[in-house]
Specification:
The protein is of the alpha+beta class. 18% of the residues lie in helices and 23% in strands.
């Protein structure tokens, strides 16, 4: 095994295109869009206030497919305390 023909080098030769050493994918991560979450069966986002933790679930079926999900939270205004900016946005409720 001193010649490099051991299991480690064999596994390395089986890597598929797009991966670099260590198993990391070398293509940039694309942002999640409304179209992508809807394609996965989700039609609502949960947004919670970072100050009072009030949470609201909003239907996003009317939004454009190319709208980026991460942009929702920072633009939300809490109806309970008036704080601008949501703490998190998560897809909710697969379609039935």
């Amino acid at each position: 095994m001193a010649d490099g023909a051991g299991p480690a080098s064999a596994a390395g030769s089986e890597r598929t295109a797009g991966y670099v050493d260590g198993g990391r994918f070398n293509e940039p991560i694309q942002p999640m869009t409304l179209g992508k979450i809807q394609a996965n069966g989700f039609h609502s986002l949960a947004v919670s206030c970072h100050k009072c933790h009030h949470e609201v679930v909003i239907n996003v079926d009317g939004g454009g497919d190319d709208l980026i999900v991460a942009l929702f939270g920072p633009r939300m205004v809490c109806k309970r305390c008036g704080t601008v900016g949501g703490e998190e946005t998560t897809p909710r409720g697969p379609s039935s």
